[in-house]
Design brief:
Strand content: under 5%
Number of helices: 4
Helix content: 55-70%
Distance between the termini: 20 Å
Radius of gyration: 20 Å
Number of domains: 2
Number of strands: 0
Shape: elongated
Structural class: mainly alpha
Largest sheet: none
């Protein structure tokens, strides 16, 4: 894929923009979680009933943070594959990842066949 660097420019820009957006969102959510935890710590005993919903919101925010962390790792890995010249190549079978898949998910590391195999049975049938 080193020869396709001109095609990678748009993907690189999308990945960098996505990374900035995800990091910004994570910072906002982290601040919300910290604020919520402080609010719970200073909660008046008379408002004890609100504690359950506050904890639920914190757990939900933590799940979102974890998901965004996973997506950030995927984006960073895609940028690394660009640097090594392996972007657009399936990490499982080494076949080229289709342009339509990359257009939909620019950080995709698996071709459609390998992704399908992974979802169906752990990826053992991808060739």
């Amino acid at each position: 894929m080193k020869g396709n660097n001109n095609n990678n420019g748009a993907y690189r820009q999308w990945l960098l923009d996505k990374l900035r957006s995800l990091v910004g969102d994570m910072n906002i959510l982290e601040n919300e979680v910290i604020r919520s935890k402080k609010d719970i710590a200073s909660l008046d005993i008379s408002k004890f009933a609100d504690l359950g919903s506050d904890n639920y919101e914190i757990e939900l925010d933590m799940e979102i943070l974890e998901s965004q962390g996973d997506e950030i790792r995927e984006v960073v890995e895609a940028l690394r594959r660009m640097e090594t010249g392996t972007f657009g190549t399936c990490t499982k079978c080494s076949k080229k990842i289709g342009k339509s898949r990359l257009n939909a998910i620019p950080y995709a590391k698996l071709c459609v066949d390998c992704k399908k195999a992974e979802e169906e049975n752990g990826g053992s049938n991808c060739t």
